[in-house]
Amino acid sequence: MIRRVEATGEPLVVTRHGTALATIVPAEGAGPQKALPATPHIIALASLKGGVGKTTLAMHLAAAIAQEQERVVVLDADEEVSALRWQQHAQAERVALPFEVMAADRNTLMRQARRLAQEGCTVVIDTPPNNREILKSAATVADVVLVPVLPTGLDVDRLATTLELLTDLEAALPSFNYAIVLNRFDARKGMAHEANQALNAHPRLETVVKSLSAYEKVFGRAPVELGQFREIWAEIRAALEDEQ
């Protein structure tokens, strides 16, 4: 009853057999409790297939989130350390990235990500291909898992192995969110439209990442083509808010 009064800001009359016994009133200054917008603290980019653009997506998404959130960290869990090398090239050119890239500790990845989130960071995890253990760790600790896929028949076919693993995690975890994000979409190609249609059978983002030359030239620089990634960030937050 007290929670109801706190939530609505309205007094509540307690009765017994139709007779009023007491009235619970809200504390002075109390009113309806407004739901805070849903903000994921940990996002994992995951796919067992390589070459789908996880690092590029992670860096651009981190830059888009950094326009709203004060502290954003990319955790680089990939053996090729592409995100870390991106940051090193930027530092060598005296280019400031709007977020920090840190090496992931593979043995304590979940604790490392959770600790950063508890310190107020929004964490984006860049995972390696063909590594089920790292993918499981990243996906387990993440509030949202994004699965990049390219618009080709081979990539859509290879998506099944990643989705099988994520579906197992979904069955085991009380709260688990994942979505496919179509990457490098070229509207001029018929296969791209076929792949886009095929993905509708799975959890996916409405936003697709178009194939732009700017994404190919941005390594070692601060990402600037962020419109699609702001849309992805907004879509993720809206989806989580709907679940609350």
UniProtKB/TrEMBL annotation:
It comes from the Bacteria. Residues 39-175 form the AAA+ ATPase domain. Pfam families: VirC1 (PF07015). Signal peptide: none annotated. CDD domains: ParAB_family. This is CobQ/CobB/MinD/ParA nucleotide binding domain-containing protein. It comes from Deinococcus hopiensis KR-140.
